[in-house]
Amino acid sequence: MLTRLGRLAVRRSRAALIGVLLAFLGLAAYGAGAQNDLDLARWSSPGTESVRAGDVLREEFGTGNPNLALLVTARDGDVDSARTRDAARALAQEVERLPLVTDVTSYWDADSRALRGTDGRRALVLVRLEGSATEAREQLATFSPRLTRTTDELTVQVGGQEEISRQVGEQARTDFLRAELFALPAVLLLLVLVYRRTTAALLTVAVGLLSVIGTLAGLRAIAQFTEVSAFAANLALVLGLGLGVDYSLFVISRYREERAAGRPGPDAVVRATAVAGRTVVFSGVTVAVSLCALLVFPFFFLSSFAYAGVLVVVAAVAGAVVFLPAALARWGHRVERPAARTTSGFWHRTALA
């Protein structure tokens, strides 16, 4: 099968490359909005006793565990002073009017010593936000900066489970973009040094990009039917580049070996696809099956890693056995290993040192 695929890639290399290009552009356009459709997760397992108890509290009593905390520090050093108490109560009333807020408990209204710091300078206002994790954190992105303040009476800092998770999610998105900006040039530079051919390095990075873009588009499609964690995009970037580079190295190295052994270019492409392609497919199946084990766990963010893992493997294998052979059929002469220098050069001198 892989031999026939290699021959088809050689015969129809132009059509294959145009098809891959159009597919890449379509996937890139669709996958560009993937981050907006991916969800943020709460760290709870559906069906557990704690989750069922939370459902009962919410449905029958209209309350539940607080998931947002405001740390209030008295500017005069005493949370029990009249000016601090009035300002804190006004703050609690302001919070009660915010969207998704269903319950507010403050030290000044509950008179609970557990909400007061031992030094008497700080106290808590506990808040419950209803709704999904994504809805709650979207609202927090708006009113968390408004609640974080310093006035003449008090200083307010926002914390708690939802705020921490919101900041983690924002940092993950920022890191994803930063990683793309850093990883691609770094990988390209390393590949140029390894291959000593710019074309080979560019083709390898193209397979990695195809894997990442294809996975993001697939995740967005899956998100229309079930919850998919935003952290799956980070896995897509890391695994997509890694597998794209790994599988391309297999195919290009085999192609170079076949050319060095005297095979014509088209025959070398077919042979590389048949031999190295078998290794790529076997490796891909192994990785995909391994990651499918994450579907056993009841946490949707772990299931999302399984979705991303399977998608990125499919995209990387397709890039290595469909796009790369067609590209080698067109530009293989620019990929071949440069003539070896056995009597000079850094590595020759190092070996003889």
Topology summary:
Layout: H1 2-11, H2 13-31, H3 34-37, H4 49-61, E1 68-74, H5 82-96, E2 101-106, H6 107-110, E3 122-129, H7 133-147, E4 149-150, E5 154-159, H8 161-195, H9 198-223, H10 232-260, H11 265-292, H12 300-331, H13 346-352
Antiparallel strand pairs: 1-3, 1-5, 2-3, 4-5
Helix pairs in contact: 1-11, 1-12, 2-9, 2-12, 7-8, 8-9, 8-10, 9-10, 9-12, 10-11, 10-12, 11-12
CATH level-four homologous superfamily name of the largest domain: Multidrug efflux transporter AcrB transmembrane domain
Which architecture of the largest domain would the CATH scheme give at its second level?
Up-down Bundle
Poorly predicted parts: none
The chain-level mean pLDDT equals 83
Give the strand line-up of the largest sheet: 2-3-1-5-4
Number of domains: 2
Task: Give me the secondary-structure category.
Answer: alpha+beta
Helices and strands, in order, run as HHHHEHEHEHEEHHHHHH
User: What about the largest sheet?
Assistant: 5 strands, antiparallel
Number of strands: 5
Radius of gyration: 28 Å
Class of the largest domain in CATH? Mainly Alpha
CATH topology annotation of the largest domain: Multidrug efflux transporter AcrB transmembrane fold
Per DSSP, the total helix count is: 13
Q: Helicity range of the residues?
A: 55-70%
Question: Termini separation (Å)?
Answer: 48 Å
The 3D shape can be described as elongated
Strand content: 5-15%
Mind explaining what this structure looks like?
The protein is of the alpha+beta class and 353 residues long. It has two domains: 216 residues, Up-down Bundle (Multidrug efflux transporter AcrB transmembrane fold); 92 residues, Multidrug efflux transporter AcrB pore domain like (Alpha-Beta Plaits, 2-Layer Sandwich), CATH 3.30.70.1320. The protein is elongated and about 90 Å long. The chain is built from 13 helices and five strands. Helices cover 67% and strands 8% of the residues.
